[in-house]
Amino acid sequence: MGPLTMHQPLPANGIDQLDPFLLLHHHGPTVFPAHNSGLPFGPHPHRGFETVTFIYQGDVQHRDSSGFSSTIQSGGIQWMTTGSGLVHSESSSAEFREKGGPVELIQLWTNLPARFKMVKPHYVGLQKEAIPVVTLAGGNGSVALTSGVWDEIAGPVQPVYDVELANVTLLPGGSFTRQIEASRTILFYLLNGSVVVNGAEISGRTLVVFDNDGDEVDVQATEDSRILLGSAEPINEPVVSYGPFVMNTEQEIRQAVSDYQSGRMGHLS
């Protein structure tokens, strides 16, 4: 993968998934030199779930076989519903390949229930300016809201399945309390920094697993910290995955492979 580093908190440490959250890859932070080859994610297929890419530094140039394309800069997001299947690539802009610079990304996979797995593929790319920011009480933190509602402000993405996602930035002494229904799965990933979460001290690059025994997430930062926070109702269906395909049965996986190999997911030149 060249200079791009990757940390995988999910799946890991005996945790296969946090239903419906399937995978979390934290790439970087790292610095690409000038005259680099860019991100290494050439054309590849997907079916049956959604991918959300958060671009913290650098840029990501998206192209897919359904005709969607965009280049999203630092602070933006890409939300792709793979649905019935497509082929896509994630590369760097010509300017970034020429000049180089810092790169930090998170890619999150969220599952879809059986009734949505074969929906028409869709893609949304949003620059930083299109993502609303909520200032936390006291002014020692902020929330960049991708989906869901925070303090009566709605995120710009309306997912196929009800998934709420936000990036929280806290200064030392910053805090927030978030009410989340106990039935929902919580995604709490600390990118960097140090926080106290419901009384437990947590340091950077840590995925926090909750017991779903309450409906409150209480956070105080002891240093500059960034958190990816999300929640969703668990799907509670069988998960059968094979590489880039996530379905409910082995037969559906075999069909996905066949459809890709026969070109029914489209082509990307």
Automatic annotation (TrEMBL):
* InterPro entries registered for this protein in UniProt: Pirin (IPR012093), Pirin_C_dom (IPR008778), Pirin_N_dom (IPR003829), QDO-related (IPR053186), RmlC-like_jellyroll (IPR014710), RmlC_Cupin_sf (IPR011051)
Name the keywords, alphabetized.
Iron, Metal-binding
The Pirin C-terminal domain extends over: 166-266
Q: Which Pfam families match?
A: Pirin, Pirin_C
Which residues does the record give as Fe cation binding sites? 44, 46, 88, 90
Is this entry keyworded Protein biosynthesis?
no
Iron in keyword set: yes
The note on cofactor binding and number reads:
Binds 1 Fe cation per subunit.
- GO MF annotations in UniProt: metal ion binding
Cofactor(s) needed:
Fe cation
Domain Pirin N-terminal span(s) in chain numbering: 13-109
Top-rank taxon of the source lineage equals Bacteria
Entry similarity comment: Belongs to the pirin family.
Please state what the protein is called: Pirin family protein
